Amino acid sequence: MIENRPFITFLSHAVLILGIAIIAFPIWITFVAATHDAVRMVQVPLPLLPGDQFFANLDQALNKGISGGSNSGVGMMIFNSLVMALMIAIGKIAISLLSAFAIVYFRFPFRMGFFWMIFITLMLPVEVRIIPTFEVVANLNMLNSYWGLSIPLIASATATFMFRQTFLTIPDELLEAARIDGAGAMRFFFDILLPMSRTNIAALFVILFIYGWNQYLWPLLITTDQSMFTVVMSIKQMLETAEQAPEWNIIMMTTLLAMLPPVVVVVFMQKLFVKGLTETEK
Predict the structure, then answer these.
(1) For residue 1, is pLDDT > 60?
(2) Which residues contact 75 (CB under 8 A, 6 or more apart)?
(3) What is the DSSP secondary-structure string of 25-57?
(4) pLDDT tops 70 at residue 29
(5) What pLDDT, on a 0 to 100 scale, did the predictor assign at position 90?
(6) Is 35 in contact with 52 (CB distance < 8 Å)?
(7) Is 125 helix (H, G, I), strand (E, B) or coil?
(8) Is 105 in contact with 164 (CB distance < 8 Å)?
(9) For residue 197, which of 173, 172, 164 has the smallest C-alpha distance?
(10) Other beta carbons within 10 Å of 84
(11) Could you tell me which residues come within 8 angstroms of residue 184 by beta carbon, excluding any fewer than 6 positions away?
């Protein structure tokens, strides 16, 4: 039984509230800056309360971009980031599910050798293999395309390992029962394995979507057409647009828009996400 100590309870809550405040304060400043005009954002002191320019800044960020810059608004960039993040998340999950299924339920030569070859790729992030990957993408004419943005980032050793561990916990009796009922390998995969892996898929989708959404280096390298820029790239470019003071109100509005999709995904998939990371029984 845990003893009820008012001071310890108060202290723990105070530390928790302080931690939340430290994390939330920069987000609040971003929101406040997105509601003021450019002139107010270069004045001292920095405003801490919202202004009345939220919708004007929203319209400019989505449709016009920085004044005097080459950006034409971040609406299309948000769409590009969304397509790239979805393609990466869905592609990683699909390939990892099939590779883990093959490794666990099929017997073929060098099966574990192939698994360890996949696992070793964890030591080779995109930054290490970026030059040969760029050459392959360029030779396949996938520069400035959604395929070029997504395909090189789709393979995932982490997801393959996690699904392999999930499949190993599923009783062999289910496989035998499926065989007795006349189910083939793919029917067993779709009718039994996929439903039982639903929470794991949801948890990985959240993680991989955020991973794809936050990509900066790879899109910066392979996109030269402004219509294929991503929203994360646009924030950096806004800071360097023309030889003038940054329009912090538009930059902060763009940052606020860039934060929304990952937040929405986490909020709507929170329960499945937690189950997928904590659930052990099948």
Answers:
(1) no
(2) 62, 63
(3) HHHHHHHHHTTS-HHHHTSSSPP-S--S-HHHH
(4) yes
(5) 92
(6) yes
(7) coil
(8) no
(9) 164
(10) 23
(11) none
Q: What's the token pair of residue 130?
A: 């970026």
For 60-96, the DSSP string reads: HHHHT-STTSS---SHHHHHHHHHHHHHHHHHHHHHH
CA atoms within 13 A on the CB side of 228: 18
Number of H helices, E strands in the chain: 16, 0
Q: Give mean pLDDT, residues 48-58.
A: 86
CA-CA distance, 266 to 279, in Å (whole number)? 18
**Over 60: is that where the pLDDT of 118 sits?**
yes
Enter the tokens of residue 204. Answer: 């990985």
Distance, in Å, from the CA atom of 238 to the CA atom of 246, rounded to the nearest integer, reads: 7
Please name the fold of domain 76-232+257-278.
MetI-like fold (1.10.3720)
How far apart CA 192 and CA 97 sit, in angstroms, is 13
Q: Is the peptide bond before 45 cis (omega within 30 degrees of 0)?
A: yes
Each residue's pLDDT tens digit, 17-26? 999 999 999 8
Helix (H) or strand (E) holding 99: helix 75-105
Answer whether 148's CB lies under 8 Å from 218's CB: no
* Structure-block tokens of residue 258: 């860039």
CA dihedral (18, 24, 26, 32) positive or negative: negative
Give the residue from 212, 207, 198 showing the smallest Cα distance to 272: 198
Alpha carbons 274 and 263: distance in angstroms, whole number: 15
